[in-house]
Amino acid sequence: MKKKSVKNSISKKTAWSLILAVKEAYHQISNNQNKVSFAIQIRGTKYSFTYDILNRQVLRKNFELNKCCSDYLDLYLPIILNDSESPYIIAHLAQTLDGFIATNSGESKYISSEDNLEHIHMLRGISDIILVGAHTVSLDNPRLTTRLVKGPSPMRIILDKSNSLNKKFHVFKNKDNNGYKIISDNIKCNADNIFQLPLVKDYFDLKDVTNLLTKLNKKIVFIEGGGKTVSSFLNSNLLNKLHLCVSPIIIGKGRSSFILEKKIRMNDINDYKINHYKMGNDILLDLDLS
Residue 96 CB: number of other CB atoms within 10 A? Predict the structure, then answer.
């Protein structure tokens, strides 16, 4: 009788290392395939699996997964192994039960749990670019690096049409010198790490922004905030995926998660396909918009 093979039980740490290795390996694979297979060596052990890109699922694997590690693969592999020819754009917002991402004064640290903060850093780790608005930087002064998890910190681009942010903000002080701004092409500027685009009715045309991202050959773009920036991409149908973290708190008043451009009727609203994941006391809603 043939001896049955014993599958490796995979840990949270190994699952994340596997995800990072998949991102690195996928650069070497043609994106025209519907199914891709991987054989990855991690700390002396070989992990292999086949992934169905169209149906977004693992077909065969030589390892076992607990619920946490299975969630990792379900959350991050569809982002990495996407079949989009243009940049794949994902956004994340953390909101209260009553739909606010910050107080009226702009305070938002921290609405979500530590588990979701780690998730944000993981999204950074698999992304090629982080994109945020200037208002978010001026309020929160984020670093936008992968300090909480293993993995490279991506390029960071700030939408700063008025060139209002100086170099004292953390995002421009990181040692990798990988923080950039997009400013209006009406501003004379000879500074480094600057892109310039025209304004249309006092705003950047998001098609110009996505064209710039395409020219930079960046495959995965993570819009980390704020609500106005995420809403603009959502209203323009440019998001492939939205992660909405709902925290079990109520603040009564504050800054709304989404800003819709048009008045809509309930009959015109489409349902989204949603998966949900527990993150500490929060619930993460994974909306597939592509």
Answer: 21
Q: Which residues of the chain register pLDDT less than 50?
A: none
Other Cβ atoms within 10 Å of 105 Cβ, number: 9
Assign domain 88-288 one CATH number from 3.20.20.70, 3.40.190.10, 3.40.140.80, 3.40.430.10.
3.40.430.10
Q: Which of 208, 216, 166, 167 has its CA nearest to residue 184?
A: 208
pLDDT in tens, 59-86: 999 999 999 999 999 999 999 999 888 9
Residues 6+ apart with CB under 8 A from 240: 82, 84, 88, 89, 90, 288, 289, 290
Domain ranges of the chain: 8-80, 88-288
pLDDT for 64 equals 93
β-strands 35-42, 88-95 pairing: unpaired
Dihedral angle, C-alpha 258, 128, 58, 45, nearest 10 °: -140
Pairwise CA distance, residues 101 & 246, whole Å:
10
248 neighbors 210 (Cβ within 8 angstroms): no
Q: For residue 218, what are the contacts with CB-CB under 8 A and spacing of at least 6? A: 87, 128, 129, 155
Of the candidates 237, 243, 214, the one whose C-alpha atom is nearest the C-alpha of residue 290 is 237
Distance between start and end Cα atoms, the chain: 48
Residue type, 227: G
